[in-house]
Amino acid sequence: MLARDSWWGPGRAGCWETGDRDRQGAWGAGGKGHPANPRGCTEHVPTGLVPHEVLVVPPQLALLYEEVLYTIRHRLGKPEHHHVADSQELYAYVQKAFGMDAEEHSIIMQQVKELESPIFCLKATVKEAKGILGKDVSGFSDPYCLLGIETKSQEPAHPDHKKRMKAVVKDLIPEDQIHRTQVISQTLSPVWDETFILSLNCFAIA
User: Does any domain span residue 1?
Assistant: First the structure.
């Protein structure tokens, strides 16, 4: 999920310029009200002046390359052992695949670094439980589930503590990060079928 908005539009004399409401100077802003001038569209540049950080890359290709770099920069999860894990290797691979030179890559990479980070979420569905212990005098229970994301720093020191999962959730996870299902009355085999969206942005993601 990308929390940003990009658009492309034709510039003067058939040239292309880029814009983004979240940032200034993408692809070399001309400054002082002048539009960005991609390399090759130098008819608007006064004699003796060199365009500042402009690209000859077609706009659609540049936008796609930006999205690829953005995805690599903010990738989530642990790669399989036979996959490339080093980000620099991935950057080098896509740079070669897109045919970008060092200057073009550097300009777009700097632009990517200035963008907002994505919002990571985990979608979890609680389906059902079977054969839970009865807690009431009737022999049944009023079960519900608590959901939360526990970081390594929040893990209990002693493995026996993991048996007390309800206490672990309540004691180690902040209240505003805990999700709770409905209470199903008088049953030992509750069915919830409830879906929750848990945000991962409150944790450090590597």
Answer: no
